[in-house]
Amino acid sequence: MIKWIAAVLGFFYMRFPGAIIGFLIGSALEVLIKNSGFTYSANTSTFQKKTRVSPGDFELNLLSLCSIVIKSDGNISQTELDYVRSYFVRAYGKERANATFKTFNEVIKHREIDAKRICAYLRMRTAYEVRLQILHFLFGIAEADGNVDKEELRQLQNIASYLHLNQRDFDSIKAMFFKSADTAYKILEIEKSATDDEVKKAYRTMVKKYHPDKLTHMDEAYQKGAREKFNKVQEAYEQIQKERGM
């Protein structure tokens, strides 16, 4: 990506020779960035330091975010707790999930959680696709009791912001849980006035973004969530096709 941007800039200033020089400089920068452990995020246009997060640390930080959502409406819902427990049992097995939940019970009852700090930790150690899945999971928790209230939605918006997820992606995932007349368009991140070609292009873009193969390194529960998002994209596109006779 960087080498092509540098090539375009070089062409703009020095035509063809500049494009070659820009390409070479950009290629060298990519090698330096790769060796330094930084990655470039096209979604946020920033360079980010990526270090691996251990499964245990990931679980506990994710559970901390779960506790924020569960407590946000002032009521610790058993339905929401059961949703989280079920998810972790599917991901890690009953024995490991039960051990993790001993810590979770302490966190949710007795500790104040700094969402910004936790999200900064996860942001620097997880890919953008994984953070999208985290948000999708948290929306599922909020909806588990049949209602996502304003305070829950505010906390979800804050978490998405701290995870550096862009607003269009937030609105797309939100639309998977909030039905409206233009839900299908919101899921595909386009306006209802979009042309048929724009709809097709948006669909292809969303398929690439939400394809389950991007989370094959994650546990089965997270892959299941990825498939759910992917299916929502498929359903949205099929609905628009039917409405328009495409």
TrEMBL record:
UniProt source species: Haloflavibacter putidus
Domain J: from-to ranges: 183-245
Domain of life of the organism encoding this protein: Bacteria
Keyword entries, A-Z: Membrane, Transmembrane, Transmembrane helix
Ligase is among the record's keywords: no
Name of the protein in its database record: Molecular chaperone DjiA
Presence of the UniProt keyword Cytoplasm in the record: no
Pfam families in alphabetical order: DnaJ, TerB
Transmembrane segments: 12-33
Gene3D superfamilies, A to Z: DnaJ domain (1.10.287.110), TerB-like (1.10.3680.10)
PANTHER family: CO-CHAPERONE PROTEIN DJLA
UniProt-listed PROSITE patterns: DNAJ_2
